[in-house]
Amino acid sequence: MQNPPKEVMKRITKNGLEYKYHVLNLSSNQIAKEIGLEGKGNQVRRAMKILGIERRTIKQGSKMYFKNKPAVNVEFFKKESREFFYILGLLLTDGSVTDENRISLGLIDKEVIEWVAKTIGYQNKIYEEQRKKGMLIKVDGRVIRVKEPKKFYIIRFVNDEVTEILKQFCFVPRKSLTLGFPNIPNEYIADFIRGVIDGDGSVQIYPTITKMGEVITHSRIYVGMGSESFLKGLKKLIETIITGSYEVKQRGGNFYTYKFDNRADIIALGKAIYRHDAFGMERKKERWLTVLEEGDIDGRAYDKSGENNPTSTITTEQAEQIVKLIKTGLSYRKVAETVGTTNWVVEHIGRGETWLDLTGGRVKTNNASHVLNPQLVETIVQTIEDNPKMTYKQISVLLNLPLATIQGVGGGKTWIEVTGGRISEKHGNSVILETEIDEVIELIKKRVSYQEIADKFKVGIRVIEGIAQGRTWAHKTGGKIRKEDKYPKEKILKIIGFLKNTDLLQKEIALMVGIPQSVVQKIGAGKIYQEISGGEIRRKRSKLK
Predict the structure, then answer these.
(1) Are residue 500 and residue 516 in the same domain, yes or no?
(2) Do 248 and 224 have their domain in common?
(3) For position 298, what pLDDT does the model report?
C-alpha cells in the first residue's frame, strides 16, 4: 500500500485536509500554499487520493472556482443601459447558459468579444477554439475545402446572480427552438435590434445590372433562427421604426426567416440602430454605413412600382398587358411567352410584389368569372356528375378549360348562383366516391396494402395515403385512421408473460411466439401495447455464465 507524501503529512493531518477541502472549499493548490508547499498542489492531490478523501468532480470544481471568483461586474447587469441591451441581443442569439448557470458567448469577431469582455468587467481569459471543418465539397470523388475552418473567440463565466437577472429577459437553457421574446424598454429598442442582427442576422449587399447597363447596388436585411415567437417579436419592434411590413416565413423544419430589401426601410433602420456612433460588429457596420452613405441618390431608394424602377425590364404598356392576361386565367408561363418576358417578371406582378401603382396588390385571376358563362358552367356540372371517376385534370383537358376553372366550379368556390354550392364528391383530384369511401376505410383498418386498395378502386396510391393519414375525407375518417392490431391479443399477452416471468432473451421469445424481435423490444420498452403491458417492463437479468 502506498504512503501519502511525507512533506504533506508533516504539515497537515487527514482531518485537516478534509476540513480545508470540504468545509472551507479550498482548492488543492490553495491548501498547498497555506501549508508552505506553494506550487505543489499535485502532492496534496496525491495525498488525498491515497487517504481516500473524496475529490470534487471537474464540473463541481469549475462551479466552485467561478463562485469564488465572480469573473464579471454584476452591477453592470443590474442597470438598464444601451450597452446592456446590445449585449442581451448577442446573448439571446449567439450565447448560451447551462443548468449550472454557466454563461457562454462565442463569435468569430474578436473585436466584439473583447468589447463585451471589457464592458461587463470580464476577468477570465478569452478562449480560442478552432472549428474542425470548414466548408467541404466533393469534386470528381475528391473532397475539397472551399472555406478554411474559422476561429471562435469565447467568454465563459458562472454567476448565479447574473443568470437570474438574464432569466427575466428569456435567457434560459436549451432556448434555440423555444426562445421567448423579452420586454424591451422603448429607449433601448434600437440597441437590442443591433445586438440581434449582429448575432443571428446579416446585412447583404449585392450589385445588379439594369436593362440600360447601369450597375445598381441592392441591399437586404436578413435574420434567421429556430424560434418563430422570437422572430415575430423582433418583427414587431423593427416595424415600429420602418414603414414597411414583412412576413416571418418558415423555411423547412424548425427554421424561420424575416427579411426585407426596401432601400428606404433599410436606411431608416440603419440610422436608428447606429445613432450616436453606437458600437457594432465591424464587418456588418461597414455594410450598413455603405448603404447609409449611398442614401437616396441615383434612384436607389426607389419603390417597386413603375417604369422608373431602374431594375425594371418591361415597359408600362407591357405591364398593363400582363395584368389583363393574368385576369383572363392564362398561366404565368403563357403570359410570359405572349408578352416576351420571363416567368419571374409575370409572377412578381401577379403576386403584387412589383408594379404596385398599376396592380394595387395581388392580381385576382377569377378564372371562372372571366372565361365562363352560365351555359358552359352547366356543361361542367353535367360532365362532373356524369363522370364521377374522372379527375378535375381530365375534365379540364376534355372541355379545354383551365384546371383552376374546373376546381372552382366543382368545389363550389365560383358560380355558386348556378351550381348551388359544392357539386363534386372529389377532394382535389381524388376520384374516390361517397359510395366507396366506407369500404376504403375498412380496408385501411384491416391493414390491406395501399397499393392493393389503389388498384381495386383504380386510383393512385397517394389518394389512399391521403385518406389513411386524414388529409382527405377527414369528415368521414375523423383524422388519421387507426389500424387494427397486427398481432392477436393472445400472442401479445404471451410475450408480456415471458418478459415478466422468465429470463429468456428477447430473441428467444420472438422465435417462440413467431413475432419479429423488434416488436418484442418495443413491448418491453413500453412503446407499443401499453394498454395491455402497463408500460415499460423491467426485467431481472441473470448473470452470464
Answers:
(1) yes
(2) yes
(3) 42
pLDDT value at position 299? Answer: 41
Our CA dihedral for 322, 323, 326, 332, rounded to 10 degrees, sits at 40
In a domain, 484, yes or no: no
Per the CB < 8 A criterion, the answer to whether 410 and 431 are in contact is no
DSSP states along 185-212: -GGGHHHHHHHHHHHHEEEEEEEEE-TT
- CA–CA separation, 443 vs 483, rounded Å? 9
Is 500 contained in some domain?
yes
Number of H helices, E strands in the chain: 30, 10
Q: In this structure, is residue 281 part of a structural domain?
A: yes
Copy the grid coordinates of residue 284: 456588418
CA distances (Å), 12 to each of 31, 34, 44, 470, in order? 10, 10, 10, 75
Are both 82 and 154 inside the same structural domain? Answer: yes
Q: What is the CATH number of the domain that holds 292?
A: 3.10.28.10
**What pLDDT was estimated at residue 86?**
95
List, run by run, the mean pLDDT of 10-residue segments along the chain (545 residues): 79 87 84 87 87 81 67 91 94 91 90 94 88 53 57 88 92 89 92 94 76 68 92 93 89 86 87 86 85 58 52 80 83 85 81 75 60 78 79 80 79 75 55 79 86 83 84 80 78 87 87 87 84 79 44
Place of cell 496525491: 46
Residues 118 and 157 reside in one and the same domain? yes
Q: Does residue 84 share a domain with residue 169?
A: yes
| In a shared domain, residues 262 and 208 | yes
33 & 97 share domain? no
Q: Are 451 and 472 members of one domain?
A: yes
Return d(Cα 432, Cα 456) in angstroms, integer.
Answer: 11
* pLDDT for residue 301: 43
Q: Per the structure, how many domains does the chain have? A: 7
φ and ψ at 409, to 5 degrees?
-70, -50
State the helix-helix crossing angle for 228-238 and 189-200, rounded to 10 degrees.
Answer: 130
* Domain range enclosing 223: 198-299
Within-domain flag for 276 = yes
The answer to whether 316 touches 293, Cβ cutoff 8 Å, is no
| CA atoms of 113 and 74, how far apart (whole Å) | 18
Where do we find the cell 469534386? 139
Query: DSSP secondary-structure letter at 275?
Result: G
Q: What are the start-end ranges of the H helices in 340-487? A: 343-350, 356-359, 367-371, 374-386, 392-399, 403-410, 416-419, 434-445, 450-457, 461-468, 474-477
